[in-house]
Amino acid sequence: MPIILLLLAGFVAPLLAVVAFSFMPERSFSIWQAPTLQNYEVIFNSTNYISFLWSLGLATVTVLILAVICYPIAYGLTYVFGKWAMVLMLLFTIPLFVSENVRLYGWVLFLIKNGVLLGTMKSLFGVDLSSILFTKTAIIIGMVYVYFPFMLFPMTLGVSMVPNEARDAAYDLGASRWQVFKEIELPLAMPGIMIGFLLTFVLAVGAIAEAKVVGGQQIIPITHDIEIAFTYAQNWPLGAALSVLLMIVVGALVLLVLRRFDLDRVLGRR
User: Per 3-state DSSP, what percentage of the chain is helix, strand, and coil (rounded to 5)?
Assistant: First the structure.
């Protein structure tokens, strides 16, 4: 019972407060007023959908890039690197102990004009290249970098769940390397891969620092609109309505993806 009360107070109550605020009149700071759909009407008649599309698009691109990058690394950590795998895992983990903003400002120093990358290229090779800082490419690089561990670790767990006996049996029966990957390794590693996909996507949809620090606000994600509504605009009901719509959109997409998979099999229950 205490755990249930703690969960209700820590998780359910804040969500209910956000939902309640979304139905309050604009610029009000109390939930004890007559409910209204005014905030949702404002959102549907505005250009907030552009911010929604940018957030969903960037999150999708980030997940796809990380899937391509992380699977070979996860495979190497499990089967190739041997005793060095633990050292590499530690190196991948250490950045998590540093603030996300600090790490992103490191990318600013790396990518800025006459910075670490372009300054070195110019001094060593005489090549004067343009900086990609404050572009959409820089935002994607920042997101891939920040959410890399959240894709790699579940994927490594999934790859490690593939029994060697199944792989050896497939080879003994004459399967090719591609057939072993497609029919044995990928399906059996899918629980970890799916968890990595969903975890990374949900986190990336809520990203805001990357667009600000390395993107120079070239694009405005939906989380920026929510922040503005809650802070500078002092319009909590509008920020709450945007938050509710974001939760609905992300939740619907996640459920849509999960419906295409056998959840019991993904979670390893059978």
Answer: 75, 0, 25
Residues 6+ apart with CB under 8 A from 148: 66, 69, 70, 92
At 42-68, the pLDDT tens digits run 999 998 899 999 999 999 999 999 999
Q: Are 151 and 67 in contact (CB under 8 A)?
A: yes
Q: Yes or no: say if 241 and 39 are a contact pair by the CB < 8 Å rule.
A: yes
Q: 171 is written with which tokens?
A: 């080879």
| Amino acid letter, 142 | G
Categorize the per-residue pLDDT at 187 as very low, low, confident or very high, splitting at 50, 70 and 90.
Answer: confident
Between CA 107 and CA 112 the distance in angstroms is 8
Tens-place pLDDT, residues 105-116: 999 999 988 888
Q: 182: helix, coil or strand?
A: helix
pTM comes to: 0.88
Counts of helices then strands in the chain (DSSP H, E): 15, 0
Q: Which residues contact 247 (CB under 8 A, 6 or more apart)?
A: 15
For CA atoms 29, 247, 145, 198, the dihedral sign is positive
DSSP codes, 78-137: IIISTTHHHHHHHHHHGGGGS-HHHHHHHHHHHHSTTSHHHHHHHHHH---PPP-TTSHH
